[in-house]
Predict the 3D structure of the following.
Amino acid sequence: MFICRKLTFKISDNAKSLVSDFLLGFDSMGVAEDIVVDKGMVGISAYFPVEADLNMVKESLKNYCSFLREHLPAFSLGEIDEEEIDRSDWESWKQFLKTVRVSERVIVRPPWEEYLPHGDEIVIEINPSMAFGTGHHETTRLSIRAIEEVMLNNKIKSVLDVGCGSGILAISSVKLGADWVLGLDEDPIAVKEAKENLRRNSISDRVRLFCGQIENVNGKFDLIVMNISAEAVLHYGGSIRSRLNSKGILIASGITNARSDEVVSALEGIGFNLDNKMADGEWVALVFGIDKSAV
C-alpha cells in the first residue's frame, strides 16, 4: 500500500536549508537531508501525501531555484526524481526523526515518541512535517543553544523571531524564559503550521505570529533571532538594528563559517558588536550586542 510520494534530487550544499524550508511550504510530510553525494552537493528527499500535485511542486521548485541561482555562487540543482513510498519505507524514515537533545536543557521530540524530562529539561514537540525546524539540523541547534545562553545571562522579555518556520525558536524562547514572542514569516503556510506547533506546546497565548516582512513590524525587542541565511542577515541588518532596544541582542544563524567574517564586518559597520560565535560543523551562530558608541 502506497502511503506517500517522494521527490529526491541533488542540491548545492549552500542552498540546502533554503530549499528544504521552501518545500515544507507545500504541505510536505517531511524533508530529510542525505549524506554528501558529491563535492559541494547534498541529496534531499521530500515526502508528500499521495494526493499532492507533484508537478506543481516540481515546477515551483525549479522557479525558486532559478531565483537562487542569481543570488548564490556556484548554485546547482540536479535532476528531480519521483517515487511512491509504501508503509514500511515510511516507518523506516520515521526512525530517522528521533527525540534529540539540542542544548543543555532543550529536548525536541516528534509526536510519536514520549520523553520524560529530568531536572530543568524542557521538552518541545514538533511535527516533522516542518522538518528543518525539528532540531536535527545544525542551524536550528545552534540557534537554540544561543537562545539558551542569552536567556541565562540576560533578562529577556520580548523576542522577534524572523523567519519563524516551524515555530521551534519561538517556542524555545518562551520555554526558556521570554515573556512573549512575535514570530514572523513571509510564507502563510509556514505561519499556519507554526500555529499548530504552538498549540501542541500549549503556548499560543504567549506567541503572536505574523505573515509579512520585518519592515511591517513596529516596536523594539530585547532579542531578535534570525535563522535564515547570510544573504538575509546582510540584507535586513539595518531593519534589525532599528528594532532592537538599546541593550538588545541579535542571534544570527543559517550562516556558514566561510561567510561569518563577511557578516560580522557588515553588522559591525552598522552599529553591532560581536559578543559570541558558536559553531557546529560548517555552520555558525553569531551573537551581537549593540555598539554603545554608535548609539
Remarks:
- The chain is about 35% helix and 35% strand.
